[in-house]
């Protein structure tokens, strides 16, 4: 065996040994990362599905969606026509349960159901709180993923089931809009004290709150001046997700 051949074999053996060690190290790292990643993912999942507070407190609100969802068409009113639905709005302050009236407001309820199923409101803040003293109405306004009050789902539709007497009782669930009657979309408001809205076109009433008005009351009691602006609730309240279920047809 020549000296050059011996050196070559020795080098090959050294390289093979190094590669074997490297494979062991990489395999160990992959195993550690897999186990660690699994733990982190589980922790994140636990945080995301953490039960909402029931003791009158609020969890830290999530960051607003980076890119709110947009849609091309208004959902067909046939989705909710002549039916009643229950919507459970999970917020960082607790659950708010609503009854949706598809018999009186089929287009509005159909839109609400569709947006809820698509996750349109996930992590969206309630951006506006009004008081009778300063605004003449007592509502908590939600449903805009941008948190600015100007966001919409990409479509609009007209007013339905507006009260002829302009009265919006406590617990009423109604759609917010611009001066354009056909601008109903994703923003809605919850009335926390009897309100009269003298608008000739009116605002679509599509349901009522059946559980969780105490949450709205606590937010209202804190007043305005939140991080989203001077008209935002001082106590931040955000929609984490919305579940909908048909309860009658």
TrEMBL record:
Residues 36-74 are annotated as: Disordered. It catalyses: [protein]-peptidylproline (omega=180) = [protein]-peptidylproline (omega=0). Gene3D superfamilies: Cyclophilin-like (2.40.100.10). It comes from the Bacteria. GO terms for molecular function: peptidyl-prolyl cis-trans isomerase activity. Its EC number is 5.2.1.8. Residues 94-244 form the PPIase cyclophilin-type domain. It holds the Pfam family Pro_isomerase. The keyword Cytoplasm does not apply. InterPro entries: Cyclophilin-like_dom_sf, Cyclophilin-type_PPIase_dom, Cyclophilin_A-like. Keywords: Isomerase, Rotamase. The keyword ATP-binding does not apply. It is an enzyme of class 5 (isomerase). Belongs to the cyclophilin-type PPIase family. PPIases accelerate the folding of proteins. It catalyzes the cis-trans isomerization of proline imidic peptide bonds in oligopeptides. This is Peptidyl-prolyl cis-trans isomerase.
């Amino acid at each position: 065996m020549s000296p050059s051949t011996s050196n070559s074999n020795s080098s090959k053996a050294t390289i093979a040994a190094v590669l074997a060690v490297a494979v062991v190290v990489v395999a160990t790292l992959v195993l550690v990362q897999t186990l660690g990643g699994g733990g982190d993912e589980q922790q994140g999942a636990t945080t995301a599905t953490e039960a909402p507070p029931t003791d009158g407190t609020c969890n830290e609100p999530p960051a607003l969606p980076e890119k709110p969802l947009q849609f091309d068409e208004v959902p067909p009113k046939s989705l909710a026509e002549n039916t009643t639905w229950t919507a459970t709005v999970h917020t960082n302050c607790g659950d708010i349960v609503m009854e949706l009236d598809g018999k009186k407001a089929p287009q509005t309820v159909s839109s609400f159901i569709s947006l809820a199923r698509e996750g349109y409101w996930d992590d969206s803040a309630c951006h506006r709180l009004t008081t009778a003293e300063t605004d003449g109405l007592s509502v908590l306004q939600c449903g805009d993923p941008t948190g600015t009050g100007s966001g919409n789902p990409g479509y609009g539709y007209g007013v339905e089931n507006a009260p002829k007497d302009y009265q919006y009782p406590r617990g009423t669930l109604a759609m917010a809009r611009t001066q354009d009657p056909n601008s109903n979309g994703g923003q809605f408001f919850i009335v926390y004290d009897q309100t009269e809205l003298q608008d000739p076109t009116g605002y679509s009433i599509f349901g009522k709150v059946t559980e969780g008005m105490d949450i709205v009351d606590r937010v209202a009691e804190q007043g305005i001046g939140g991080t989203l602006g001077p008209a935002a609730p001082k106590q931040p309240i955000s929609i984490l997700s919305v579940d909908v279920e048909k309860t009658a047809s």
